[in-house]
UniProtKB/TrEMBL annotation:
<dbReference type="InterPro" id="IPR014710">
    <property type="entry name" value="RmlC-like_jellyroll"/>
</dbReference>
<feature type="domain" description="Sugar 3,4-ketoisomerase QdtA cupin">
    <location>
        <begin position="9"/>
        <end position="135"/>
    </location>
</feature>
<dbReference type="Pfam" id="PF05523">
    <property type="entry name" value="FdtA"/>
</dbReference>
<protein>
    <submittedName>
        <fullName>FdtA/QdtA family cupin domain-containing protein</fullName>
    </submittedName>
</protein>
<dbReference type="InterPro" id="IPR008894">
    <property type="entry name" value="QdtA_cupin_dom"/>
</dbReference>
<dbReference type="InterPro" id="IPR011051">
    <property type="entry name" value="RmlC_Cupin_sf"/>
</dbReference>
Amino acid sequence: MEDRERKPYLIEFPVIGEPSVGFISIAETAGVLPFDCKRVFWTYNTPESILRGRHAHYATEQVIIAVSGRILVTTELSSSEVQVFVLETPCQGLYVPPNVWHTMQYSSQAVQLVLASTPFEEADYIRDYATFKQVWG
């Protein structure tokens, strides 16, 4: 399947532990992650009224995880297919391939962790929706 045809999908991370001692989930390239992780970043204290993201990437693949709280992620493919994902458990992540427009809205206590396939490079971002549709539509 060509890169531009890949769709976002949910990833279930292994859960180890029990309620009396707590839990751990693991994301390793050899198994769960569909790419080698080159960058990790997180967002927090984002007001509920703020819509983040609003961009696509030329090359970067990401896995978005709600470590705490709830994150509503809306994705749009170049074909205009829209999907909405609700992330609210730290043992689940959303794989977002390149060329997918995505936005995130957070609950008041949400902490988002993102695993990315590339180091940060501004030139990889498509921040204008019309340009996204022109490039990938």
